[in-house]
Amino acid sequence: MARGKEGLFRSRYQKSGDLMNRTYRPSVYDINKASILRRFAAFLIDMILLVVLATGLATLISKIVDYDGNYARLEEKYLEHGIYSLNPDASGEEDKYIACVVEYDENGKPLSNDACYLSWQDFYADAEAIKYSGICDNLMIVMLSMSSLVGLLILEFAVPLILKKGKTVGKLIMHIGLLGTDRVKIRSWQLFARVVIGRFAIETMIPIFCIVFAFINPRGGLLGVIIIAVLATVECLCVGFTKNSQALHDIVGSTVVVDSDSQFFANSKEELEQRLAEDSKS
């Protein structure tokens, strides 16, 4: 006999209205997708928490790898070769230096006699300068990637394991959760694949590499913008046109975002089949 809230699970379809105008809503055994609005609200909450946590982690990692020390040495090389000059009107560290600007001709090529262009030529001929430039570029990628990975593992892997039903803090607030596409509770390996491959490798690291590439090579920034735009478009198409409105990370993990208040979370396929068999007899 069904008990308490389990009484909701007794009928294959919940019915309302009179016999001539009967309406149906999906059974709690079916996949009850969460609305896009609630998913977006949960995403914003989780992203705010992730940015705060990742920023703190990046600061900690920067201290460990001595990013500030290496960048200070790089700045000395910029000053030595004339790429940077001290700003006499500086009011703080933010405007301490004035960076030179390369002049280009009508064909988009740098003027060979331009002072800034010659300064950069000298800079690239300095092996020590190239060394510190490479160290800083690599450390930037390490800080961004490691802080993002650890932040995602805490907020979107560890927390859902604790809260159950695939709930992050945002999902808990918005009463939504994660379910396997086979209508069974999400497994640890699914959650791990969803976070590490989907959220981190695809949706986080690709934009990070594009941003870092644009920072290192400003003239290559357009390519990064195109890649990010294509990724965002694919993400929207996946949510809009897949059967269960799955984002890329959901496709990777074989998961669906569901309304946790109206969804039955079976522990196994056998339990789900048993429930359906009992329901068909009632």
Characterise the protein shown here:
This protein is mainly alpha-helical and 282 residues long. The protein has 2 domains: 32-71 and 129-265, no CATH class; 82-125, no CATH class. It has 10 helices and 6 strands. It has helices at residues 36-65, 67-80, 115-125, 127-163, 169-173, 188-202, 205-216, 221-241, 248-253, 269-281, and strands spanning 14-16, 23-25, 84-86, 97-99, 176-180, 255-259. Strand 1 (14-16) and strand 2 (23-25) form a beta hairpin. Helix 2 (67-80) runs antiparallel to helix 4 and helix 4 runs antiparallel to helix 7. The model is unreliable at 1-25 (pLDDT under 50).
Fraction of residues in β-strands: 5-15%
If you compute it from the alpha carbons, what radius of gyration comes out, rounded to the nearest whole angstrom?
A: 27 Å
In spatial order, strands of the major sheet run: 1-2
Number of helices: 10
Distance between the termini: 10 Å
Number of strands: 6
Short description:
Helices cover about 60% and strands about 10% of the residues. With about 280 residues, the chain is mainly α.
Features:
282 residues; mainly alpha; two-stranded antiparallel sheet; two-stranded antiparallel ribbon; 10 helices; 6 strands
Per-chain topology:
Layout: E1 14-16, E2 23-25, H1 36-65, H2 67-80, E3 84-86, E4 97-99, H3 115-125, H4 127-163, H5 169-173, E5 176-180, H6 188-202, H7 205-216, H8 221-241, H9 248-253, E6 255-259, H10 269-281
Antiparallel strand pairs: 1-2, 3-4, 5-6
